[in-house]
Amino acid sequence: MENGRGLPHASGLHDRHQDVDVVKLHSAANTIAGFHFGLHRHFAMSGWQNSITVHDAKLLGCERVVAVDFTRDSIMDRKEYFRRVGYDGTPQPDLVTLRALQRAHLEHIPFENLDVQLGRRVTVRPDDAYSKLVTDRRGGWCYEMNGLLFWVLVSIGFDVMPMTAAILRAERGKSAVSSHLLLCVNLDQPYLVDVGLTDGFEEPIPLREGMHKVINGSVRLEPLDDGWWRFHNRAGARSASLDFQHRQTDWSVVSSTCEWLQTNPASQFVKNAVCVKRLPNGRVSLIGRVLKKTSPDGVRERLVDSEDDYVNTLQAEFGIVLPQAASLWPKIVRRHTEVFGA
Fold it and tell me: Does residue 26 belong to any structural domain of this protein?
């Protein structure tokens, strides 16, 4: 369900005379009402259950208040997420936990756009991402991956701000804006966190100008004259740069971009089936028919040769059980021929 501005409502809302008297929020609701309406910081610092009057909300810049009643009995169970990513520590809102969760998420939940290929609508709602990535043990793209991690971090007690980002804005210009979602986590200093970039960084990076050592190389953060920052990726990365604004994202723009990326024939996510997963010492990717595994021993590559091979490869390499993916095979073969020839 969407409101007049194209933003998805949280489940269980009650609309009364356009505005309502009180918004009751639990931690999961932070991810829905809180970050859609720019109220996340207020709620995140107030504990498990919060109440806010319409007057207070308007002072915080909320144009319209929706009533949300999320409880710990909702479908989103943090312990199930921890099991999904293999995390067995004691979560605390600190850098140790943040680093462990980013790495665990990357190594257990693949980046993939198979729902887009199958014509299934993808939303920016974290509860939808939870159902898909945790309950159904699938993967997702950046809005789902970082949206889910956002909810987890807030539920632990982290102060998190989702930010608008743009992949290859240096080359693509304004059309790249909101093509990515990035998280900023405030601890002793602001840290960038990302689990939705296929070849990005594997651990939190201080939001500070200059070079930063990461696994398998170095990256650089550069403040730009137009108010944006630029993340310069490690040498050889597919996404050479990522621009972002250090401020709360505009969710109406993100929602619109998410829709465009999954429906417009010009979108690379419509054209290509993509699956990528980090490994402890490398990564595995399946772009169309091309399966590539990178490790300290080098790169191994092969072509998937049939629809059965495709479905089996998804399960064996990415843990994705999706028999319906067999229907994608003719499209994948056509796309491979377009790009590489017969």
Answer: yes
Nearest-angstrom CA–CA distance, 120 and 306: 23
Amino acid letter, 311? V
Confidence of residue 283 (pLDDT cuts 50, 70, 90): very high
CA atoms of 301 and 281, how far apart (whole Å): 17
Average pLDDT, the chain: 81
Q: Which residues contact 192 (CB under 8 A, 6 or more apart)?
A: 182, 183, 184, 201, 204, 205, 206, 207, 221, 231, 244
Structure-token match 């998937």, residue found: 304
Reported as half-sphere exposure (CB side, CA atoms, 13 A), residue 88 has a value of: 1
Q: Give the residue with greater pLDDT, 66 vs 271.
A: 271
Residue 342 C-beta-side C-alpha neighbours within 13 Å: 0
Q: Which of 31-40, 123-132, 216-225 is predicted with the least confidence, judged by mean pLDDT?
A: 31-40
307 and 255 within one domain? no
Q: Which of 259, 290, 307 is the last residue of a domain?
A: 259
Task: Write the CA distances from 181 to 6, 115, 177, 254, integer angstroms.
Answer: 18, 19, 10, 8
Residue 342 has pLDDT above 60, yes or no: yes
